[in-house]
Amino acid sequence: MSAAPLITLSGLTKTYGQGDAAFQALKGIDLTIQKGEFVAIMGPSGSGKSTLMNVLGCLDTLTTGSYQYEGIAVEKLSTDQRSLLRRYALGFIFQGFNLLARTSSLENVELPLLYRGMSRKDRREKAVAALNSVGLTTKHNRTPGELSGGQQQRVAIARAIVTEPSTLFADEPTGNLDSVTTGDIMELLKRLNEDRGITVLMVTHDDHVATVAKRKVVIKDGLVESDITAPPP
Amino acid sequence: MIWNAFAIAVREISRNLTRAFLTVLGIFIGVAAIITMVTLGQGATLAVKAQISSLGSNLLTLRPGAGFGSRSSSAGVSNFTEKDAEILGEQIAGIAAIAPVRTAGLSTIYRSNARISTITGSTPVYFQINKWNIADGRFFTAADVRAGSAVCVIGNTVRVELFGTENPVGASIRIGCASCEVIGLLATKGQAGMGDQDDTIIMPLSSLQRRLIGKTSEHSINQISISAEEGTESLGLISDITEVMRIRRNLHSNQDNDFNIFDTRQIAETLGSTTQLMTMLLAAVAGVSLLVGGIGIMNIMLVSVTERTREIGIRLAIGATAGEVLLQFLIEAVTLSCIGGLLGILLAFALCYSLAQVIQVPFNFNTQINLISFMFSAAVGVLFGYTPARRAARLNPIDALRHE
Ligand SMILES: Nc1ncnc2c1ncn2[C@@H]1O[C@H](COP(=O)(O)OP(=O)(O)OP(=O)(O)O)[C@@H](O)[C@H]1O
Ligand SMILES: [Mg+2]
């Protein structure tokens, strides 16, 4: 592992609110992630996993410390530069889906490609392929309101991978799925990681799911409690 | 990027048609109301002005009696004499023309058609003072007056009621108990506001007096029509006339005038400014309706602000820049308010066009008010549609997503 790391965090803290109401959700995280890794992030509820993912995914700003992505100091980027980083390099699967209401699955998945300025035809092709790859081969024209929780989850996953990001952040991507579908999705993430070299950071509560990852980082009370890399098989 | 944002904006509008409809409706009603009211108001002002100027712009009318608003009755007040008119014309500078007038309401009959008409007896100068034009045939002349010929000219309303489609010129009608030849048809003046001016029969004063009513005394003139010279101050003229008339009617200094002078220019100015005031009032009312429309839009925007903030959060999260999102919202707001504005202009046009005919005012397309209200509607749409988006687009994506 001599290459420059993809992500370097040092002394990262995140405080919500101000004054008396202030709450420090992350209390100084040091973490290095290499390109092509598959990392499972675990820990009890309320420990700060989602907070960490949001900061890493450039959806939220950090309070103190530093975050380097491919050698770029993210905390020094402007709002627009962070938008562009998200557009071209990052994919995010939310704990709560966050799909556009009244918008078909297909259009939801096409949306990130639209901002990349891709032609209509290419968009459609890629979106259909992404939906098929998450196992949603029908109901492409249904809106989120007309889909089950698991189906919405798959649309959200398809939207995150359709751009083939270099890093995929997944906040409990299988939280709403049955064990068979969970297996399918984990297989998909594993393939994306192994075949396309996409770095995956995934939050999960499920130890079984976490076994797909070679590395397991446990967060507790806003700090890294353990960081174990499984020995190569 | 603009085209992209436009495509997104149009798609977003089509996704929530109820919201789009309500937004458009607010602007639509406001714009239609303000344009209709102002256009019709101005039409009415124009109609009144045209009406007044068809009366003759510098026209003074002298009548016996103390006039409008006076408590003393005009009963028993003596009429004027032809000599009064003559003397006024000779003694007062600034009078362009003066005509003694006698009016009487008499039955008029042509074949099987009969009606009561107002018959005016005067001199040829009367036509000039009152700005009458001839449509067919001729006016009567000074010779007709001298000879007391049994001739008359009729207004269009009389023609329609007595003759229908027949040509009246050359025909003989019965007025009271005498027969009279129609020698001319007057060009029509219209009737908005001041009563039907075309309902008139005009004949030589001498003929009216001798043949129809029988002249019983010198005091047989119940009106004197005067037109002032261009540029004459009408107040000065009125006081000159008053002075001469008081002497001729032997009024002591402690007696009130037993005659009154009606000044069309003064009336024209009053009516003109009244209708203008009405137009402004209507415009204010319509402006309020545009404002209410704007508040309606604001409500719709506020109701949907949570959903839209989340939408903005999602767009930002998947890589849109704040600028792109704002452009989309701006285009959405402008598109909706322009559609509302254009529809409003169309409805206003249709309304003005048809209402103008119903209430008989001229219809003229007022570019200015159309432009102003269109701009205003666009501004309202942008203000209420765009401002909430601006706040949301400044947030961190995650804060926009969490908005509740
Ligand atoms: N916007 C916020 N304002 C204030 N406190 C917050 C905010 N978001 C999260 N927190 C707090 O920060 C802590 C960490 O929250 P976070 O969502 O990161 O937990 P988590 O590890 O993802 O939990 P879960 O497994 O339940 O998703 C929690 O105690 C939470 O109450
Ligand atoms: Mg969480």
Quaternary structure of the protein: heterodimer
- The share of residues in extended strands of chain A comes to 25-35%
Tally of DSSP helical segments of chain B: 13
Our count of helices of chain A gives 7
Instruction: Look at the helices and sheets of chain A and give the structural class.
Output: alpha/beta
- The parts of chain B where pLDDT drops under 50 for at least 5 residues are none
Bound molecules: adenosine-5'-triphosphate, magnesium ion
- Could you tell me how far the N terminus lies from the C terminus of chain A, measured between alpha carbons in angstroms? 18 Å
Share of residues in strands of chain B: 15-25%
SS-based class of chain B? alpha+beta
Write down the overall geometry of chain A: globular
Report on this structure:
The complex is a heterodimer of chains A (233) and B (404). Chain A is α/β, with parallel strands linked by helices and 233 residues long. Chain A has a domain at 7-92 and 158-229: P-loop containing nucleotide triphosphate hydrolases (Rossmann fold). Chain A has seven helices and ten strands. Chain A has helices spanning 49-56, 79-88, 105-115, 120-133, 149-161, 179-196, 207-210, and strands spanning 7-16, 23-33, 38-42, 64-69, 72-73, 90-93, 167-171, 199-203, 215-220, 223-229. A six-stranded mixed β-sheet of chain A has the order 6-7-8-3-9-10, sandwiched between helices. Chain A has a four-stranded antiparallel β-sheet with strand order 2-1-4-5, covered by helices on one side. In chain A, strand 7 (167-171), helix 6 and strand 8 form a beta-alpha-beta unit. The model of chain B has no long low-confidence stretch (mean pLDDT 85). The radius of gyration of chain B is 33 Å and the shape is elongated. Chain B has a six-stranded mixed β-barrel. Chain B folds into two domains: 2-51 and 272-402, no CATH class; 78-257, no CATH class. With 404 residues, chain B is of the alpha+beta class. Chain B has helices at 2-15, 17-55, 82-91, 125-129, 142-147, 156-163, 205-213, 234-248, 264-303, 305-317, 322-358, 367-393, 397-402, and strands spanning 59-64, 95-110, 113-122, 134-137, 151-154, 172-175, 178-186, 201-204, 223-228, 259-263. Chain B is 57% helix and 17% strand. Chain B is built from 13 helices and ten strands. Residues 49-50, 95, 171 of chain A line the site of magnesium ion (MG).
